[in-house]
Amino acid sequence: MASESLSFLDRAELSSVSPLNRYLLSLISIKRSNLCVSADVHTTKELLQIAEEVGDQICVLKTHADIIDDFSERTIRGLQEVSKRKHFLLFEDRKFGDIGNTLQSQYTRGPLRIATWAHLTNAHLLPGPSIISALHDAATETLIHLNQSVATTISAGTPRHSLDSNPDPEASSQPPQLVQTSTNPRRTGKKLGASSKTPEEENIMFEHRRSSADPLSGAFATTTISQTYESAAPSPGHPPALLKSLSDASATDDIADTASALQELGPPPHARGLLLLAQMSSAGNLATKEYTNACVDAARANKEFVVGYICQENLNTQRDDRGLLNFTPGVGMPKAGGQGGDGKGQIWRTPDVVVRQQSVDVVIVGRGILGAEDRGREAERYRRAAWRAYEERIKE
């Protein structure tokens, strides 16, 4: 495999890696966690409770919003708050597979509005590669909309221009003005490396202002449309403390500067990403080798949006694939004296088999953690096992 012996941190520094992949690879390195928990529950309370209990141990939380009985804006705000505070990405396991126009509405509208809050989602390639561009376009439009606000102020009285000595009869319908009002308003702290102040690298807010007046009523209205272009990538360089702490893959799990490293990394880039369902674990599934190969070809052609795959093995077979991530579900570990399965015919593969032997990047665990008496402690057990398997892999 092209990426099996390369560390997550080294992969994050590759020039060909997309901003969102670079962020996730860096996040995995800082938290020393390649664990994704699948929170398949039915109420907002349960979902947010799980996020709180396992948030420190994971890099990604996987959700099924369509099975949450009381899913609402409160669910979205709660997930966003916990994910920012505990530093993990949100992955809505939607499994899109429809024609472009329909899936764009499914992605951006309705009660779920997935594109407004989920950093990651996934899709089958059955409709063809156009499903990727359709979702990418929808995500782009959604992010622009989220960054745009409109405010109108109406005040009574005589417009200023009518008091001027030389009133302009055209002034009541002024063209919009483009005004740069602030640069990088949210981020604090010095960035490492060169800083070219472009919309892709800095937060820049522009305002379109239009004023109008009604000469009969004397009312004067000003409409301001504000658009913020947020940073498309994390800091171009890595903090020295982070490099020192992560330079040795065999370092202890207790990294003293994890909190400061996460602060330096900052929030996720203003971007969305897609995982392609390239392989499945269910018996008799129709994901043939030809289908999997088509997913790989599509991912290579759309790296700015495709984060990687849902798969059963590492699919990165070429050098340029190293920025793509491989996620694998169906991972479990037997408790002392127990069997590795769910008691319903499914035999889980352990983190060692999936990560070290199959060279997968991120393990997805559901019932193995959700059913534990102490979810946080069990998530930590899985995190340590998956990370240990990764360390052994890159040393082999």
TrEMBL record:
Question: Signal: present as a keyword of the record?
Answer: no
This protein's species is: Ramalina farinacea
Q: Does the keyword Transcription apply?
A: no
Q: Which residue ranges does the record assign to the Orotidine 5'-phosphate decarboxylase domain?
A: 34-382
Family per UniProt? Belongs to the OMP decarboxylase family.
List this protein's GO terms for biological process.
'de novo' pyrimidine nucleobase biosynthetic process; 'de novo' UMP biosynthetic process
Among NCBIfam families, the record links this protein to: pyrF (TIGR01740)
Query: Which EC numbers does the record give?
Result: 4.1.1.23
UniProt pathway annotation = Pyrimidine metabolism; UMP biosynthesis via de novo pathway; UMP from orotate: step 2/2
| Region Disordered, annotated ranges | 156-214
Query: Which residues does substrate bind?
Result: 40, 62
Q: Where is the signal peptide?
A: none
Superkingdom is: Eukaryota
Return the InterPro entries for the record.
Answer: Aldolase_TIM (IPR013785), OMPdecase (IPR014732), OMPdecase_AS (IPR018089), OMPdeCOase_dom (IPR001754), RibuloseP-bd_barrel (IPR011060)
The catalytic site is made up of 93, 95, 98
Task: Kindly give the Pfam families that the UniProt entry links to this protein.
Answer: OMPdecase
Which protein, by its recorded name, is this? Orotidine 5'-phosphate decarboxylase
Kindly state which keywords UniProt assigns to this record, in alphabetical order. Decarboxylase, Lyase, Pyrimidine biosynthesis
Instruction: Spell out the molecular function terms from Gene Ontology.
Output: orotate phosphoribosyltransferase activity; orotidine-5'-phosphate decarboxylase activity
Q: Where is the composition biased (Polar residues)?
A: 171-186
What is the enzyme's class at the highest EC level? lyase
Could you tell me which PROSITE patterns the record lists for this protein? OMPDECASE (PS00156)
Reactions catalysed, as given in the entry: orotidine 5'-phosphate + H(+) = UMP + CO2
